[in-house]
Write a structure and sequence with these properties.
Layout (H helix, E strand, L loop, with lengths): L1 H9 L11 E4 L2 E5 L5 E3 L2 E5 L6 E3 L9 E3 L3 H14 L3 E3 L37 H13 L2 E5 L11 H7 L28 H16 L15 E5 L9 H14 L5 E4 L3 H4 L8 H10 L2 E6 L4 H13 L4 E6 L8 H13 L5 E4 L35 H18 L16 E8 L3 E7 L6 E6 L2 E7 L6 E4 L8 E7 L14 E2 L6
Helix pairs in contact: 2-3, 5-6, 9-10, 10-11
Length: 507
Amino acid sequence: MILLTLLLAVSTVNSICPSCFITRSGNVLYEQMEDGSNEVFTFSGVNIYWLGMDHNNPDVPNGDAYFTHPSNYRVDDVLMSALSMGSRVVRSFTLGISTGTGEFHAWNCGWEEGTVWSERGVTKEENFASMDYAIFRAGELGLRLIVPLTNEWNYCQGGIQDFLGWRGKSDLEGVDDNCVCNMDQHRQDTFYTDPEVVSDFKEYVSVILNHVNEYTGIAYKDDPTIMAWESGNELYFPTYDWTVNLARYIKEELGSHQLFMDGRHISVTGFNSELEDPVLLSTYQEVVDIVSDHLYPMDTDKLQEFAVQVAEYKIPFVIGEFGWNDKDADVEKFLIAMKELQSYGLLSGSLFWSMFGHAEQYGHVTHDDGFSIYWPTGPEPESFHHNNVAYRAMMKNFSDHMFYMSNREVPTTYLMSDISPVITVLECKPGQWVKVAFRGIAGGHLYKVSVDGHALGFIEDRQNEPTFIHTDVVQEGSKVEVIPYGYGDGAQYGTPSEEVVCPTSSL
């Protein structure tokens, strides 16, 4: 009965067929189906920025951060969590941004051995490994990917300052902590106009798009799992010529089969003025398939204004990020506005910032920007003041929005991974207590802890530290087991952990 319930859930996961790309006609996106037909494609989903490289603590909640390429377990776990929540699309900038060593990054943060291009023109193929696996697994789960190619902000994963710095054109003098967040962004405009810098960036883009995935045997540029290449994350002043030429380079010279998304941060710097010229607009429409924006804070008026404007350009519009945890913002109003725009054909997709999954030992990987999404239970960010009920309700609203945006019914029972939890910490005091922690599974909501077949209680899927359970049942040689329960109606439960014998040293 345990496996039957689980297999019924997992059977709804459909991998992406090799010829099923996302295409565009006018301001509508379409999904190519395996039988050759096309269906209108609208979506919601999450950002998972760290799929290619991470700078958090992967082991335990609230631990010290360090650089890693995420393990296959972490990638599997978070992608399955995204799917369970209702995502159809995941945006991840470390699948396309992997440059520098820290010299031109904020706070000198960088991983010398971890990026694909730690220096100009030198490719470290081994650093594609986690990127390859994430793209492979997303395709198996039927998730589409949006992949930015550089970053306005000079954070640990790399960005436009690397390309400027390699040519001696980085302008960071007098900038606090080396962070471009503290400077006039026009000081980076040379990235879009200097011939050497532009050539270097195109060479890097070629390395990314032409790389052949070790798991699929398919070059990134030919993989339908990647629905779109985004010019960059929150680019302030990319010129019209740079954007159009990059789109042409990707599509015509590199032969990419995917869409091209303009990463200009229009709510901050507006649209390119050239789009007022009908001839230049026509050229833009031919090569740019999606216009996107990020709204921090959420602004319903701007959302509606930009959606109407982009529709006049006859190009699909996507909200790639938005500040859902701004204390003065009306989240529900914003979600309703996005769904209404989708129903009018004015918004193709929305993406929440940002999702994390389980840690390697117990609990979840924690991040301190206040926008962390954990499905379905938590832990909640500090701004919720320990109100997990409110956080859980918000996550359910986000999930409902994801299903609404893709015109699907909200399920009553949600997908849960078919792997088992792993007990990672176990101490026992005969006749008194058990202390336990475990690595969780995607879609798990509660975990029943049993000793020798006796149920001791349930632990919610938000462990911050090992849990003490007081019981007189535990004895020398007792066996402890953890059984996951899914989210939604009914008693959906999954694969139990292996039984672990109470260690002698703790008796």
